[in-house]
Amino acid sequence: MKVLIVEDEPLAQQELRRLLTRCAPPGEVMACLDSVEDSVEWLTNAPQPPDLIFLDIQLSDGSSFDIFEQITVSVPVIFTTAYNEYALQAFRVNSIDYLLKPIEEEALGAALQKLTSLKDQFGGKNTNPAFSPQQLDSLLRPPRADYKTRFLTTLGDRIRYVPVEQIAYFFAEDNTVYVVTLDRKKYILDYTLDHLETLVDPKDFFRITRKYLTHIAAIGEVSRYFNSRLKVALVPATDDDILISRVRVPGFLAWMGA
């Protein structure tokens, strides 16, 4: 069995290699990659695809789901993640398995057995089920009726709620997540950006960088930038220069034009 590991933590890479020698049939780790960009390039140019991809969700240059926006991946994927329970249940229903970090040998063995059963179900040992970016996105997000319509915020001793339609963007700074409203007010939220992505409507919000999750109404000027990136000015203005990575650009432009 030929395996590709996409994981940006070297120790996690090493541990997964070690566990695979104990649980997997004789095979080969074709490569260990740590970024969206390297993964897209490798999968595009590899002379033959792997039989299985171990894929962490958060990589050094963005979300691993950006990979599926760039290329079609017709290879089974086992996610290695600490993602929220809702998403994990969705992966299970869709027959896409996952491993919680730190990975346990028993869990890895069960995931590999599930892969064998899945291949049999889809018509043979050499048949790999394909899945689209839309399917993956729908797995990570609750049904539209479950998207939040408002968020509780704190400012000193005061607690208030912010309706989603008043939100310009969310951003993370110094281990704190803030929400900025269209009228330039800023509040602290008790969420991570990863969690917020699952709570808001993807038609309205987009994770433009690892630090910013923005509403379409907050997109100001967008301009071409060096190395096929985009520079985005948000409204209200930010202290940061916001550059969208090359691998995120197609998904961002598709979202803007939806």
Overall pLDDT confidence: 82
Number of helix segments? 8
Regarding quaternary structure, what we see is single chain
Give the helices and strands as they follow along the chain: EHEHEEEHEHEHHEEEEEHEEEEEH
Low-confidence sequence ranges: 123-136
Largest sheet: 5 strands, parallel
Describe this structure in words.
This is Two-component transcriptional response regulator, LuxR family. It comes from uncultured Cytophagales bacterium. The structure is a single chain. With 258 residues, the chain is an alpha/beta fold. It folds into two domains: 2-140, 3-Layer(aba) Sandwich (Rossmann fold), CATH 3.40.50; 144-256, OB fold (Dihydrolipoamide Acetyltransferase, E2P) (Beta Barrel), CATH 2.40.50. It is 31% helix and 31% strand. It has a five-stranded parallel sheet with strand order 2-1-3-6-7, with helices on both faces. Strands 12-11-10-14-13 form a five-stranded antiparallel sheet, with helices on one face. Residues 123-136 have low confidence and may be disordered.
